[in-house]
Write a structure and sequence with these properties.
Blueprint lengths: L1 H8 L6 E7 L2 E6 L2 E7 L4 H16 L17 E3 L5 E6 L4 E2 L5 H17 L4 H10 L9 H10 L6 H20 L6 H24 L2 H12 L3 E2 L8 E3 L4 E3 L6 E2 L3 H14 L4 H14 L4 H12 L2 H12 L7 H28 L1
Antiparallel strand pairs: 1-2, 2-3, 3-5, 4-5, 6-8, 7-10, 8-9
């Protein structure tokens, strides 16, 4: 492994002084800065798209971005003798956001609002600029590559995903009902299902309105991008600034998806504290005010019981011969927190519209 990584890094224009392992990567200290070497699961075309939007952010003054380096041959990726694909990215020494520290969370939410304000890049500009950074080997397939860039402006329409989740919830419920013997977790799922299935139905009924479909298309047309994985692992507090990393899931669409995912996970840890949740939404809006339709969509995303879907999805796709105590405890915790979650939903409904 040591020899393999050394051979890989030699293909990049850096002078390594030392290296060590970190979570999911190998960190290199070089004359040119700090870098991480990671396995790459993306195509060269998708990497070109991702790197182009990160370059745009850097041009706008956001320097703490994990830009990928190109090899001496002009490619973002390299392969080892076993055929594994690697990518080398700029990295930063710092600590992850502490979700138990409200000041940390406030800064991360403010940073997200600033990122969203900057993260507007019309698709035609990305297509035009990305075509300039394709390697010579890709010239023959440039037309196909640009078509891929266009697709990333339209994929993952969120209401379609949530409709699928709702169908999966119903399928798991029907599966458990037919079982003759049920364990504690399965009984818990059956008891909670009516409440959360009703919430999912109410959320999707309103999301299916034409105005929300328009919001998705409007976001794409305006070139609004979102990070796609903005969580406490991907926001680093360095000595001088906040670094944002791992943009692999970035695409065109509704930016409030980032805000929802970050706040939902944090609110679960906070026991759905009404005061804390409202404060963070207000902090975001001080920098990037939400439109009326965005505000209502944010509420509906919170209304949809994503956590319940995740837990029963884990159950259905895992081993059913034994009960996962960890997942069962999460379901019980959801049940215990539901009253506070309902208070939060009522309060933000009044706040947002």
């Amino acid at each position: 492994m040591e020899d393999k990584t050394e051979e890989i890094v030699k293909q990049y224009p850096i002078h390594v002084n030392g290296k060590r392992r970190i979570r999911g990567a190998i960190l290199f200290e070089a004359k040119e800065g700090i870098f991480t070497l990671i396995h790459c699961r993306e195509s060269e075309k998708k990497l070109s798209f991702t790197e182009q939007i990160k370059m745009k952010l850097e041009e706008q003054g956001r320097k703490a971005i994990d830009l990928a380096l190109k090899t001496e041959n002009g490619s973002y990726t390299t392969r080892d003798k076993q055929g594994n694909v690697w990518i080398l990215k700029r990295w930063f020494l710092g600590r992850e956001c502490n979700l138990h520290d409200n000041d940390d969370v406030r800064e991360v939410v403010q940073n997200l609002a600033c990122l969203h304000r900057e993260f507007v890049y019309p698709a035609q500009d990305i297509i035009k600029d990305a075509s300039k950074i394709l390697t010579q080997e890709q010239d023959q397939t440039k037309t196909d590559c640009l078509e891929d860039f266009k697709k990333w402006g339209c994929k993952k329409e969120i209401t379609g995903t949530l409709h699928r989740h709702m169908r999966e919830m119903k399928r798991v419920y029907n599966y458990i009902r037919t079982k003759k013997q049920k364990n504690e977790m399965e009984i818990c799922i059956l008891n909670l299902f009516p409440l959360y299935y009703e919430q999912a139905g109410k959320a999707l009924e309103q999301m299916d309105q034409e105005s929300f479909l328009y919001l998705q298309q409007q976001s794409v047309n305006e070139g609004r991008l979102y990070h796609g994985s903005y969580n406490h692992h991907n926001v680093l507090f360095t000595e001088h600034e906040i670094a944002v990393v791992n943009f692999e899931r970035a695409e065109f669409g509704m930016q409030i998806v980032d805000l929802y995912h970050f706040l939902r996970k944090w609110m679960e840890k906070k026991g759905w504290s009404v005061h804390s949740g409202i404060r963070m939404i207000e902090e975001y809006q001080k920098i990037r005010p939400l439109s009326d339709i965005e505000a209502k969509m944010l509420y509906l995303l919170f209304l949809f019981p994503e956590k319940f879907w995740k837990q029963i999805d884990f159950y259905y796709n895992g081993k059913k011969s034994w009960m996962s105590l960890k997942n069962y405890e999460k379901l019980r915790k959801m049940e215990e927190q539901e009253q506070e979650r309902q208070k939060f939903l009522r309060e933000i409904r009044g706040l947002l519209f």
